[in-house]
């Protein structure tokens, strides 16, 4: 109930009047008539400082004001997606925005300027015309969840200091396993810092299942182990093989059909060849939604082979796993319930803020067995509560960020049906794009079929290329088109979309849609923009 | 400039009046006279919904109101540290707080209740009397930084979508390397999801330096590799050895003196014994600030041995690395500049919100060489900017959370000197505690010397135990004291402090101080509370 006016002046003789009396009960009841901090006011005025409540409240409200303005503009199509600058420009300093750190404190006034500038020179990943990544959009409830998470500032390793979050994680993982279709309730899982780590977990758990002695004796205790994954799969399988001591040479890439899906016969042939060499086929990764094409490997046929040869089946659904929430699209993952483990990133197709990735394991106990080290200072057996809720020892991390709350809160707010609508809408939009350009002049689809996910892959041919004869010269010129258009998009700040080569295919655009703010008009805008920028190339 | 009143009623016939006209420009200019959402209002009213600006603003301000009330109470010593409930109680549902997820959306009103309840049943890790973990406290500027980070919702893998954050990370890592004392500017580093992963990176990089062929050929391409670390070191070294394919048997634990510091002669003897067996000593971890005792291994003497035998030297300064910021205490890490890699977690002793951990590497290029897979869809070589700023390929992650901004913003706000003051203050407090109890009746220090870090390890003997003869019975009874007192602390919610056994030592309290809100009165309170709760045991 303490009043606060001109706290700045009271503190060190500054005479600027900075605020009105407030009672400190609820921020919603109080008008603030100024947004200036005195230039002498710094962090030492904030809590836990004596009389720090009001400056703290004022400071946080200033920050929230900056953030809500940013949010408003993010959804405003008249705002640019980004204000591009080269690294050397930002490093040299932009209009008083200096990235260098110093020995002395800056004023809170300057800190607020730094916050504004950080956002100003960043990229609006929630903008309806940001299509650059698999993770796009800005979900307001998820954002609120993340603000709360950082305010709670705790750690997932024990129930002791994260009771609510630990239970939320447990319940949510169980729900996800049910959606995968695992009947028994004895599965397991954990939220990890991203899909690459989730995939790494799957390889670790597979190895532990078949060769548990590797945990103590190392890879020399096992025969030569081989992993199989599609040539279109995510590079994290290779990263895991390098990190975990398999070696990238022991990752066998599987051939795909023209739509980017694994050819099961190729898997079986390679498994047989591996066995004939005396090596052990350990693990197959089937991708549900590849990164570039959005292809879904035929899980059932792959599962048949895995069962026949006793191989661990992982489904990397980092991108496509969310389609399990859609009654219309979940058939694309048919057979997923036969997998031994599944990666599923709610931070991609479900619009949950970064980071939120789950590794789900069908057999309970493997994660724990694989990773536990029983640290006495954290996992005391003589606590007063049921210590099976201390889940930290099954992680490869010790401290673990709370990734669950924002997701849990969004699920509460949207319901399963809300996620389903989100996913169906994004897939409808990609069908709209596909139908719009598949026969349009100057466009060529990278493969000739309706996309399975929201990925639409295509070349744009500027008029100057269209009449050229097929051949290396045309290919070379086409290869440069997407990077040039992308660079111009970024310079103008109008939109962003990804491109890449794939195999022997020269650079093409990969359009993906995961943002619930995107509409058909944004798709139209993207096409107009490609044509505007690319017309004279 | 759109007005907004009774948007709820306009939308679906509800007649409750919900808000005043606002102009939508700045939240600080507008009084809100109600904090009720209509029970029919749900997430579909929020952005990107048509006319979603005002409901979004209203919702976020309600959330911020909940959060600022929580923050205020966190610093209020009359508030409990926690309101303990057993897992089954929370799972059964507390007064309308239901953790289960459903198919249908909840109202925003209920979402706000869920937010309040989540905080209510959690643990206030920022409370001045929360001493349970190495990471405590709630830094207001760091919190603001994290709110901004989640609003920006981007990903560290490319400069393209995180230009400002990528540069901030680069500059901050360089500054940290300078503080370590590496003279050349050619070092490297990355922020990782916690100290365990940072330590894992150090082992990976050491392996790559000496046996780069492991990346492609697996561990079978290398001889038997051995890692050395203190018996008091963090369990993450063992976790890494299990995960990376070394095997925990190939981690040799080093003997320590009574203060928990590695005995260098023991290291040398074990290195020689390892070589005599034909194995290869690859890596030594010297801990700067052990988890339980807070001990600092003698880095210079260990470095001499590492140089003599050509072994990688890592310094795990997850807990103690921050002392490098203090002119008074940095001598405890003397020799750290001779290390090949250093783990340093600003989220511990420097009060940065979770997660914020850096792995620093003296030699540039190793992280990249070790982990790069050159994914074409992310790291296109034909971008218009200098792609050496696309740092994602040196991570084991693909997507990577922005952990840098809150740290950078805190550094701006506090300056190097502000961190120094924070650290010195916490160490002063631990000295105060040590001096208070070292000769106090009923207390016994676990080792007999002033602590090197803020860890103070001690037994409390209830009066009933004091006159017992030394022996197994007394040990068994003493072993139960700390868990019992801790359980009562949690039930009463008054404070939290850790305990554990270590080696042949029965359960003792480990007091640690990293919270800038703690004062001598809080130390006094802790001791009073131990005596109050433990007196009649």
UniProtKB/TrEMBL annotation, chains A, B:
The keyword Glycoprotein does not apply. GO terms for cellular component: cytoplasm; presynaptic active zone. The modification N6-(pyridoxal phosphate)lysine is found at residue 348. The keyword S-adenosyl-L-methionine does not apply. Pfam families: Pyridoxal_deC (PF00282). It comes from the Eukaryota. One of its GO terms (biological process) is gamma-aminobutyric acid biosynthetic process. Its cofactor is pyridoxal 5'-phosphate. Its EC number is 4.1.1.15. It catalyses: L-glutamate + H(+) = 4-aminobutanoate + CO2. PROSITE patterns: DDC_GAD_HDC_YDC (PS00392). GO terms for molecular function: glutamate decarboxylase activity; pyridoxal phosphate binding. Keywords: Decarboxylase, Lyase, Neurotransmitter biosynthesis, Phosphoprotein, Pyridoxal phosphate. Homodimer. Catalyzes the synthesis of the inhibitory neurotransmitter gamma-aminobutyric acid (GABA) with pyridoxal 5'-phosphate as cofactor. Belongs to the group II decarboxylase family. This is Glutamate decarboxylase 1. It comes from Periophthalmus magnuspinnatus.
